[in-house]
């Protein structure tokens, strides 16, 4: 079963790596309409499942998860802007700084003591961000600047939602969490459907495919893997998304791989990877020794 779980997460990461390609392909659709497909498809898929299973009676802190869903809608929009304005490599590398922000939130808000090694990895990640942006203008007239800032904003937003949803995992099923993750976005981005008649038919089909693959398949595969693997192993395998996204951008879209993207991205990915593993070990220790929580 562990092999199947590993394969599931690997496939999940590879599918997630197509994010940038799908977003850049639907050129006749607005950012808001793409976001609407990303949010509404999971909601429409999950809602009948929840209804049939009698799981529409929520027991957790609904207000808290709705706040997280609102933040996730903003994060989703920034995420799309990141891929539209800058290269896939820049966007995916900077988005994967989110474990660093999760660690920072836990340290500042929850007063979790940060180890020296975590501090050093945070500094390494900051150096990586600086290196990645070397040679690019700090101006809102620069597409790269807009895209890369949006990627960091999306990363911060995702980190906040991870912390909030994590605090409610004992009160909701995985399907309920997927539902709440997307429900606010499904309504917030609804006005953008007025732009859909202007989109090409093939792009509309890709929008549906995007919402299904990224909003449902990716999460289902990841949750299946997480059920049979440790959190540290599952999240570590997800870093294949960075590699697959960069390679797809290079081979299919002919995006250039600059030295600063590779070097800075390497610093960021290494930092995020090890901080994720340190956080995973900490969570495991807390589960084994609940009196230390």
TrEMBL record:
Presence of the UniProt keyword Repressor in the record: no
Transmembrane stretches, start-end: 6-23, 35-56, 76-98, 119-139, 145-165, 177-196, 208-225, 237-253, 259-276
Highest taxon listed in the record's lineage: Bacteria
InterPro entries documented for this protein: EamA_dom (IPR000620), EmrE-like (IPR037185)
Entry keyword Transmembrane helix: yes
Any single Pfam family the record assigns to this protein: EamA
Start and end residues of each EamA domain: 4-133, 146-276
This protein's UniProt keywords: Membrane, Transmembrane, Transmembrane helix
Protein name per UniProt: DMT family transporter
